Amino acid sequence: MARSTTAPVPTSVRVSAPRRLSGEQRREVVLDAACRVFSAKGFHAASIEEIAREAGITKPVIYHHFASKQELHSAVFEHYARQLLAAAASHGVKGTPQERLHDIVKGMFTFAHANPHVWQLLLGDSTDPETARLQQKLRAIGTRVSAERLLPEPFFKPEPGLSRRQSAEVIAQLTRSAVDGLVTWSLEHPSIPRGRLITAAANLLWTGLSGTAASAGQ
User: Fold this and answer.
1) Which of 98, 107, 162, 177 could disulfide-pair with 91, CB 3.0 to 4.6 Å?
2) What is the average pLDDT across 140-158?
3) Average pLDDT, stretch 151-180?
4) Nearest to 218 by CA among 152, 154, 157
């Protein structure tokens, strides 16, 4: 019998088989794809078929991790909301009060421009009822967290007629709403230098905060 003349493929040029994703890695792929589709179309218009195509997988894989589109939507929102809150908590921890405020504003801009589809889902303008409901819950958490950070600040003085906590919540709501809105606007106007928007927003907010403290101390 003739011996085969086919030479073995050198190890250095062998094509490796695609690396198999772990269950957790595949779940991350699904969450990212779902976030992109939900942010673009909203909960009701999005379909599992489209999310599967975006993720490069089949529908059964999605249903292996999530029992329904509703469960997937909630999981996506919770997953990225945790990331946003963690990003906010990691900024504004050093420096003077004014420097910390600037860093917090910068952190929100940085997060949004690095993850525009995530920001759109979490805090962008939405007419989708299910998304709007979850957005409202996240905004309430953001206001509460911001108020908690403001309460121990020595420069912060409550407004006359309001308790310290009530005053902190009012200011937190105003500042959070302003920053969220400006960040969303900046994503729609990418030609405007982001650094200038951050500086302008931080300076205006600080003027308001420091002015409130000064008037309260009179």
Assistant:
1) 107
2) 93
3) 93
4) 157
